[in-house]
């Protein structure tokens, strides 16, 4: 599977600030990737480089097999972008705004208006954008990012200001684009939202790529323990086999910290054969925990 976005050895400095330090990764088609990191980690700089708004000091970036900072970046119309803070002409209506962006992408305005309905702005389409709330402006921004069914979609904190129902619709739209072969990159602090949605995670810290991979790969690399909670029937007691240095008491049984998938399966087999066990719950390291682990590991190594 060829990459739609390739970042190789990229360095970017702003005077004395080292924004990016030798960053390399690929983004594949048909995959939703998450770009996570604290403020100042280099996330927005990376997105600006992919859009061709700035150039790297060293290294190279290819988007749809073109240099985005080149004078003739013909693939630009195949990109969708939603900045963290959207800004539109307050005097235009929502429909006029989307018509303007549709013409820039050579999309018929009549085809663009369907996106107003998709993001819940049909009733406000002919109101001036200056009367919109922050959440409504964010919805309009999402609509313009989706114009032309982009092959690469770059989203910076896209769910800011969205209510839960629209947030669910937003991810449904992204899943459709991904299933259609688009490359989707979300930069976000909302790690809990991305937990079950991101197929590839890029963890940035102080301009460095601290870690990347699937959640499964990151869990394996981190060697953080898996939590297995076992509940016992009232009066059954806790067998001695469940009490060891890697377990702690819970109100209804024990929670065991197991180091890997093989040990987890051993615990599950033992639990399944124990007549006193009435419930088993498994909690793998969360994206929040993985993020904290890799940042701490990098800080310790620095």
UniProtKB/TrEMBL annotation:
Keyword Membrane: no
Keywords attached to this entry: ATP-binding, Nucleotide-binding, Transport
Keyword Nucleotidyltransferase: no
Domain of life the protein comes from: Bacteria
Record-linked InterPro entries: AAA+_ATPase, ABC_transporter-like_ATP-bd, ABC_transporter-like_CS, ABC_Transporter_VariousFunc, P-loop_NTPase
Pfam families: ABC_tran
Family membership noted in the UniProt record: Belongs to the ABC transporter superfamily.
Protein name: Copper ABC transporter
Gene: nosF
